[in-house]
Specification:
- The complex is a heterodimer of chains A (452) and B (484).
- In chain A, 29% of the residues lie in helices and 25% in strands.
- Chain A has 452 residues and is of the alpha/beta class.
- Chain A has four domains: 120 residues, Rossmann fold, CATH 3.40.50.720; 87 residues, 2-Layer Sandwich (Alpha-Beta Plaits); 91 residues, Rossmann fold (3-Layer(aba) Sandwich), CATH 3.40.50; 94 residues, 2-Layer Sandwich (Alpha-Beta Plaits), CATH 3.30.70.1450.
- By secondary structure, chain B is mainly alpha-helical.
- Chain B has a domain of 244 residues.
- Helix content of chain B is 65%, strand content 1%.
- Chain B contains 22 helices and two strands.
- In chain B, strands 1-2 form a two-stranded antiparallel sheet.
- The longest helix of chain B is centred in the N-terminal third of the chain and has 29 residues.
- The radius of gyration of chain B is 22 Å and the shape is globular.
- Classes of the chains: A alpha/beta (452), B mainly alpha (484).
- The interface between A and B is medium-sized, with 19 and 20 residues.
Chain lengths: 452, 484
Amino acid sequence: MKILIAGCGQVGQTLAQELSAEGHDLTLMDSDPQVLEMGMERYDVIAIQGNCASMQTLHAANVEMADLLIACTGSDELNLLCCMTAHAINPHLHTIARIRNHEYVEQTYRMRDTFALSMIFNPEQQAAQEIERLLRFPGFLKRDSFAKGRVEIVELRVDADSRLCNVPLSALNAIVKCKVLVCTVLREGQAITPDGRFVLHAGDRIFVTAPSENLALLLKNLGIVQHKIRNVMVVGGGTLCYYLANLLQNSSIGMTVIEADRARCVELASAFPRVEVICGDAREQSLLESEGISSADALIALTGLDELNLLISLYGQSCRIPQTVTRLENLTETGITRDLTLGSVICPRRLCCNSIVRYVRAMQNQEGAAVAVHSIADGQAEALEFVVDEHTLHCGEPLRKLKLKKNVLLAAITSGGKTEIPSGDSTFAIGDSVVVVETSDDVILQLNDIFA
Amino acid sequence: MNYKMIGRFFALILAVEAVFMIPALAISAVDGTHSATRAFLITIALTLLLSAVLAALSRGAKHIFFAKEGLFCVGVSWILMSVLGCLPFYLSGEIPHFIDALFEMVSGFTTTGSSVVSDIEALSRAVLYWRSFSHWLGGMGVLVFLLAIVPVSGKNEGFTMHLLRAESPGPNVGKLVPKMRQTATVLYLTYLALTLIDFLFLLAGEMSWFEALCTAFGTAGTGGFGVRNDSLASYSPYIQNVTSVFMLLFGVNFGCYYLLLLRQFREVIRDEELRLYGGIVLGSVLLIALNIRGLYATVWDALRHSLFQVSSIITTTGFATADFDLWPSFSKGILLFLMMIGACAGSTGGGLKCARALLLLKGLRRNLAQVLAPQRVQMIRVNQKPVDEKIVANTNTYLCAYTVVLVGSFLLISIDGFSVMTNFSAVLACFNNIGPGLESVGPLCNFSLFSPFSKLILILDMLAGRLEIFPILILFSAKAWKRS
């Protein structure tokens, strides 16, 4: 498919990486020649320099022949203008725009036909929803849900004092006393698809598939104490904080926000009367302490600076705060954070990338496309949800007779509202939803692609 | 330096080279030239073996590839290809000294066309074929060929850009279409189609198929190896004119042909580099024809020879229909000038490239204007578009590197003691991938008179000229070899 990406920032680059790996023809547009140069050297794309909302640039990028435009520049207004202009030139074009400003979210959704938008994405809002889910179920580093919330893939770290340390996976179900499946292990930065003989070590990060109803049991039997979260401290009062406050305002969770910019503090304080807004510099230890960091149940670092977020979370852990959430934009895929025992890490651009990749796959392949795509294990593995249809091969055959591709795992089968962690005797039938986890390099577009 | 990844590329390149030697093997088998058959068999076996060993050693390579690796990979692979490619010449005994065989092969791959063989007609047909085919392969580049046939997919495959940049000539190499593989395929298909048309035109001129094929290869790669001792002088005027036209066509940026296919005629006609190229050719042809008209019976003959020599030199092919060493000094001066300018960027020709000449001239004009108005801000524009200052600076650096290599090799080969004009034109001819020079290395002479040391210098010059200096220069830097 021919895809134009307007804006070669962090989201643009992540999209270029994901979509070029899937074999699409990508054209990057940006006004800054330097970032374009970088994009060209990293990914197999062509670059057009210019204002992406101008007809001239769009013509140069051959918008007439394109199938999809993704506008992800830093400015919402520019993204909208870009999509409208491009759609006016090519009425068959699908357009996706990034809208971050909460003041526009509702109107762009309601007037999406006027703005010629096929899809809107909002990384900060998605990240806020993700954080809210984590706060409701503390203990997991990351949660991805499938099959309308019936199946989850949760991330856990194996610490030296954990009950899982030095245990082979075949003994896992006996320890946690419920049926779960470790689908991926991230060890020393490498994603591994384990088998029953695989022994877990301290420092491994494991991705566990479990029916949602078993999550509480899983935490309990692993000896992970569950604190009910009552008050959280948020450092950094940007857009993400706004969306989070919006989600938490009707819950029982109290929120303290520390933000250095006074004007922004006033905005937040006027929008959310229940939120305690503190104007100050989070780098001052005395400020954090006087605002009660040691009594917070969760610390969430959301400033725009990865380094600062990292330091604040590490400080929070030294204060024994049970749950920390760190927003990282750039440092997620580097080795720097690998050995740190950070709590949950949130990368907004990764989250929205998942939904765009899903949209693109659905566009390309109307039938049999994945209904959910989640990138897990720092982007090294992918969890996909498919619905079994009449074109799916091997329906009703027991799994032990099937041969799957290397590094592909069938992680869960949900049929009629009941989720099963598959064993050799399991089968799937038409209408079931199936979760597949893969760490290979080949792209899996349809369910049939998993069979060797 | 990611040696494993580079090793993987080497393995592929050698496999491609071995496959391309098979037609030569077939020709030698049909002709019954046993020494050549044996030489090609041994070489193919050796090349495949080396390729397999490299492939085995480079298993599990990490896909980390930077500009440094791209330059290094291109530089070393060309040397490796030449060393293996010259083995048939050496093993068959048709070129008895190894350094001579290497010179001949490098001259082939770099599309230079300088020869050390005095009696070309004595060589077997298989060796002649391989010599000419190396022009065709070297013209567009082996790595570009690899990029066209090897599927690359994955998350960070932008590195192929480094390979395209390092192997394709020109100051500002870019893709034609978003995917590297398609870009490389478009380039090679255009190249193949033009070569085929040239071949058919030559066949129509009653040339034997073998000679037509070799001449088409030499023309397409702007190489210049002929199959006769007098290059193209003994062929009919029709064949000479066809070759003149096709040499000029292969000296045009291949991006222009892609634009023609997209029916964007206006952009092609307005292309400043193409206009400069056309203008230089037209001016030189007329001036030389005027200068040499006394030497030939008719004005048309003078025009024909002038056109042929001008297109042969500016596209850095190096075929000859006349001994231009006997022409008046003014004509020789023009030809020396054309040697340095070279063809268009993105073509198969060598030299400094018209695109660079254009940038340098415009830069000069701007800097003069800035002397008069020091605070004026002025952009250099090509095709109405402002050129990035980095590219302007790179072009100046390139001219500097070009001069350093030129002067350095001139001094080094002067040790042999030939005349200044011989040495200077020999370096120019090799460095710009032309072929013949003047005086003792003129169109009817060859390079066998030089000492092995000078030949080695000229070999490096040819490689540096074809790969635009930097891939060869970095091989002399210890830092480039460091493992990382």
